[in-house]
Design brief:
By secondary structure, the chain is α/β, with parallel strands linked by helices. The protein has eight helices and 17 strands. Strands 2, 3, 4, 7, 8 and 9 form a six-stranded parallel β-sheet that branches. Strands 10-11-17-13-14 form a five-stranded antiparallel β-sheet, with no helix packed on it. It has a four-stranded antiparallel β-sheet with strand order 1-12-16-15. The longest helix is centred in the N-terminal third of the chain and has 23 residues. The protein starts with a helix and ends with a strand. Bound molecules: zinc ion. Zinc ion binds next to loops. The site of zinc ion has 5 residues, from loops.
């Protein structure tokens, strides 16, 4: 009789251990990049050159990519039929690009160098361009790109107000680009889980234009082929994701097959509107459902993990795994 009790106690203890292990070996984390990809790239195009509309936007749309176009309002053409500067885009073209999901944003109304103008002049250059972009395309810029990449601490403070980020790092992609160094750049981003910000001006003409533009198109095709590892999106979306990711705290409670996750984020919810990707690292999950409030979240089940996007401002996430 005693032996039987011993066996029953052992069985109960073992099943307790199995349960304790199964709930402990689940790790809940926010993905470094959307979709838990290895790295991210934003392609940014400066100065509003016409080729950004005629060549870049169509190629990006063909690949399913979206770019960031930082423009100077003073150079943008009002008249589509008789443009004042044939090398630059028109407001109508920019509105069409924004409508297709590209980011059209602020590079200063007249490209004023932060190091050579007063703070009041810089302020006016920034605000005037915000108003021009808002009144012509209906979207308020949420990022900023420093003209000539010149920055001063006071100027950066003004340029950063009411924005999700400003361009403080960039990698030139243009006249000096070779297929080898572009490939090395991408491979390094993948290995180091970094965010690359490409900076391009001219494609076939103008400042820093490519010696051979085909190099750029080939590079984009290669990145497309590695899309499972690389998140390509606008500067605004990726910088927002990173800020939200780095400032969100998760409180996780596990109970059998249920996981309750309470996210806490104290950024400005009107500016930071990107969903974050949650990752549950666990092998062999067959079924998973997730909801945030009353909203059902779309869950992706992989052999070693479960992924879903959630809104870090939207309260408790309830997850059930089987
Ligand atoms: Zn510029």
């Amino acid at each position: 009789m005693k032996n039987w009790w011993f066996i029953i106690v052992c069985m109960l203890f073992n099943s307790y251990l199995a349960f304790a292990q199964s709930s402990q070996d689940i790790s809940v984390r926010i993905a470094k990049y959307k979709g838990d990809k290895n790295c991210a790239i934003s392609y940014t195009f400066d100065d509003g050159l016409k080729e950004h509309y005629t060549l870049v936007a169509p190629k990006f749309e063909e690949l399913g990519f979206r770019g960031t176009f930082w423009i100077n309002g003073i150079k943008i053409n009002e008249n589509e039929n008789a443009p004042a500067d044939t090398t630059r885009m028109t407001w109508g073209q920019l509105k069409e690009m924004a409508g297709n999901g590209h980011e059209v944003s602020n590079h200063g109304w007249a490209h004023k160098n932060f190091g050579r103008h007063t703070l009041d002049e810089i302020k006016e250059d920034i605000y005037k361009n915000d108003s021009a972009i808002f009144s012509n395309i209906g979207i308020m810029p949420r990022t900023f790109c420093y003209p000539h990449n010149t920055k001063t601490p006071e100027g950066m403070k003004i340029a950063s107000e009411n924005r999700v980020g400003t361009r403080t790092k960039q990698r030139s992609i243009g006249s000096k680009s070779t297929p080898e160094d572009l490939e090395k750049w991408v491979n390094t981003l993948i290995e180091t889980n970094d965010w690359g910000v490409g900076m391009t001006h001219g494609i076939t003409y103008g400042y820093d234009a490519f010696v051979n533009p085909q190099r750029f198109w080939n590079h984009l095709d290669k990145v497309k082929a590695m899309e499972d590892k690389i998140w390509v999106d606008t500067f605004e979306k990726i910088v927002s994701y990173i800020e939200e990711r780095d400032n969100t705290e998760l409180k996780v409670t596990k109970k059998k097959n249920d996981i309750i996750i309470v996210p806490k984020l104290s950024l400005n919810k009107d500016l930071f509107v990107q969903p974050l990707t949650m990752v549950i690292d666990k092998k062999g999950i067959k079924k998973a459902t997730a909801k945030q409030g009353k909203k059902k979240l779309e869950v992706q089940i992989h052999p070693d993990k479960v992924l879903f996007d959630f809104d870090p401002f939207d309260g408790t996430v309830q997850l059930n795994l089987k």
